[in-house]
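step=encode ok
step=design start
structure_in=
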């Protein structure tokens, strides 16, 4: 007996020790139901016969049970044979009980007839159950056929409509084999067979705009043709809902990623994610000012931060603005990590010197890995270094790196050569680059190395047509128009796994960057020992205070409530011009000292020059701002307080200079205000404006 039975407590499932598990809530089957009914009838008959119970009571109970099952069967919409079988079971059991109570239930005739009744009830129950299951399956099948018929009718109508449309616009008669409705409800895909005679899908792809107009698709929706399963088939993606117009934030599911699973960079017009597979490929992201390129860089860095087998290095010569949001949450004012948190990027170079150091280290790592991991690659039977959390891939993100490669500035040439060397030699050893550019022009895409290695390509158009030659960036693709992606953050993306098509990246804000840095801090891998030895102190000391001073300058701000620091607090030159003017005591001491020298050594005064003699010109000496009159200072001339910080930052960038947009982001002011202040500084000679179209920048006079 079970524990529940001995204690009187109810239980759903109870397993007898050493016996068969029993489920007391399970329904009766044909055997258990018949056994329960016959044993119940036998028990009632035996008890009633021994106690003198009137036999008619059993018959009344049986009739009530039959009526109840009939009502329930009608309510449950059971078949008539099922209702009849269950009602008859009640009546037969009640009739046997009444007869047994009258004649005696312990006779062989009574027991044998009861056994016969039980077998009949089990067979009838089994038969009715099978019949009910068949009825239910048939009802579901009928419903499915109705839905399929309705859907098939809709698909046939779509197929016929687009066969006629393609024939009318392109002069091609298709044979549609299937119509797949997208689960997101934003469009459908036609799988069609091209007519014989050598017709290719490119004839349809080139008429994308005309097909979209003929179908009266909403703005931002397109009909895009791409290759099918073989060259005689074509897939036509038709977008019916404009998902590019809405601004979606970066997904808050910061699940771990891998270089092998792909890094999500945005979503297609069918609302599905598009990922970049960068184990062997480099990437090129093109976007003009205001197209959302900086946001795209942050989306890329977010994906790299989530990966468990990627180390991210960032080069941004415009004051490191692309990587600073990923470093600041993890550094305090002393440049040390806070609460053990690691920065979202493994290395950030904001100056020319640091960028050159980083690329030198990358080249050394690539060459050393080729020698150090020969045994590992041999065991894995591959010529590609097996990337893992123990041997991570290094992704170098270079903001406006394509401009560095195309620059005519001689000082940029060594940096460009190092970038090309990393791209050329480091594919198998797990070092790849992501370059950004301000436009898809011949100067940017003219480098064969970029075109050959950067197979993952993105063009953020934002509706801008100048400097966006989509034919050069996506050769062989037809029907791409800038006006198809007029929204900020939208454009075209193509990878070796996914043909070029419309896409949009997510919006990512600074507070979400901080959340990602905190959520992924313990996920970042560390550089493998062999690579660390090749990298040397240049890599090991990348977060030293002497090399991250410029980062910490952005981590502290002086408010109006804080006392102003003395001019010499920073260490700088100890100029007398910067000291106070109350030097009376020092002057008296100096006069007394000179008097003692005159008394002891008998020195004489300096001869007075003859007024008629021509004197040599006085050299002007250092042109120190501390020696300038107050009316010549920037503050008196209307320069804002942040201008000095901006000028220092511009000086640190060297000959590259800084664009007004980068300065505005650094000082947190609007571009109009920043441009006016910088122009005023140019007029005062504190800066030089280098006019170069979209690459125009402000340069310090020392580097002009």
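sequence_out=
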């Amino acid at each position: 007996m079970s524990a529940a039975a001995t204690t009187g407590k109810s239980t759903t499932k109870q397993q007898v020790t050493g016996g068969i598990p029993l489920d007391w809530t399970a329904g009766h089957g044909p055997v258990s139901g018949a056994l329960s009914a016959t044993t119940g009838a036998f028990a009632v008959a035996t008890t009633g016969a021994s106690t003198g119970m009137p036999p008619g009571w059993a018959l009344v109970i049986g009739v009530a049970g039959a009526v109840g099952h009939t009502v329930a069967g009608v309510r449950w919409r059971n078949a008539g044979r099922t209702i009849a079988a269950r009602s008859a079971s009640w009546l037969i059991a009640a009739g046997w009980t009444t007869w047994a109570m009258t004649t005696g239930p312990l006779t062989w005739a009574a027991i044998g007839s009861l056994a016969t009744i039980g077998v009949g009830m089990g067979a009838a129950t089994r038969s009715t159950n099978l019949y009910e299951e068949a009825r239910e399956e048939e009802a579901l099948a009928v419903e499915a056929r109705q839905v399929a018929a309705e859907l098939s009718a809709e698909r046939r109508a779509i197929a016929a409509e687009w066969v006629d449309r393609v024939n009318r616009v392109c002069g091609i008669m298709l044979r549609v084999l299937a119509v797949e409705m997208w689960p997101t409800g934003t469009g459908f895909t036609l799988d069609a067979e091209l007519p014989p005679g050598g017709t290719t899908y490119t004839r349809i792809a080139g008429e994308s705009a005309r097909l979209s107009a003929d179908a009266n698709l909403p703005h931002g929706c397109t009909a895009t043709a791409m290759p099918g399963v073989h060259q005689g088939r074509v897939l036509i993606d038709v977008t019916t809902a404009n998902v590019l117009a809405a601004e979606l934030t970066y997904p808050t599911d910061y699940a771990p990623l891998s270089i092998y699973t792909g890094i999500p960079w945005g979503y297609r017009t069918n609302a599905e994610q598009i990922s970049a597979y960068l184990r062997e490929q480099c990437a090129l992201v093109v976007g003009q000012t205001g197209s959302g390129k900086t946001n795209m860089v942050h989306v890329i860095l977010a994906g790299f931060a989530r990966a468990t087998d990627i180390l991210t290095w960032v080069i941004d010569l415009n004051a490191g603005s692309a990587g600073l949001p990923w470093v600041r949450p993890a550094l305090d004012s002393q440049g040390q990590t806070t609460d053990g948190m690691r920065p979202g990027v493994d290395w950030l170079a904001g100056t020319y010197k640091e960028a050159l150091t980083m690329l030198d280290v990358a080249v050394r790592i690539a060459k050393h890995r080729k020698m150090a991991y020969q045994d590992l690659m041999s065991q894995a039977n591959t010529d590609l270094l097996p990337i893992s959390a123990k041997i991570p891939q290094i992704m170098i993100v270079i903001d406006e790196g394509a401009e560095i490669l195309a620059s005519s500035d001689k000082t940029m040439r060594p940096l460009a050569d190092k970038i090309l060397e990393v791209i050329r030699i480091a594919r198998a050893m797990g070092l790849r680059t992501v370059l950004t550019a301000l436009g898809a022009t011949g100067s940017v895409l003219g480098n064969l190395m970029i075109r050959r290695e950067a197979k993952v390509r993105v063009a953020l158009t934002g509706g801008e047509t100048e400097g966006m030659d989509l034919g050069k960036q996506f050769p062989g693709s037809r029907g791409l128009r800038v006006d198809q992606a007029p929204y900020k953050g939208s454009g075209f993306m193509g990878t070796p796994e996914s043909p070029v098509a419309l896409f949009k990246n997510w919006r990512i804000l600074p507070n979400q960057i901080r959340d990602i840095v905190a959520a992924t801090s313990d996920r970042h891998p560390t550089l493998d020992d062999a690579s660390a030895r090749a990298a040397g102190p240049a890599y090991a000391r990348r977060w030293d205070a002497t090399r991250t001073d410029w980062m910490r300058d952005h981590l502290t701000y002086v408010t109006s409530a804080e006392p102003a620091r003395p001019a010499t607090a920073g260490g700088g030159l100890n100029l007398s011009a910067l000291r106070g003017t109350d030097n009376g005591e020092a002057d008296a001491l100096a006069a007394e000292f000179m008097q003692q020298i005159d008394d002891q050594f008998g020195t004489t005064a300096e001869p007075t020059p003859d007024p008629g003699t021509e004197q040599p010109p006085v050299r002007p000496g250092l042109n120190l701002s501390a020696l300038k009159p107050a009316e010549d200072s920037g503050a008196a001339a209307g320069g804002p307080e942040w201008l000095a910080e901006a000028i220092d930052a511009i000086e640190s960038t060297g000959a590259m200079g800084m664009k007004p947009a980068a300065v505005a982001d650094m000082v947190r002011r609007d571009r109009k205000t920043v441009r006016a202040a910088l122009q005023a500084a140019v007029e005062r000679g504190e800066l030089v404006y280098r006019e170069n179209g979209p690459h125009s920048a402000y340069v310090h006079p020392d580097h002009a």
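step=design ok
step=annotate ok -> The chain is about 40% helix and 15% strand.
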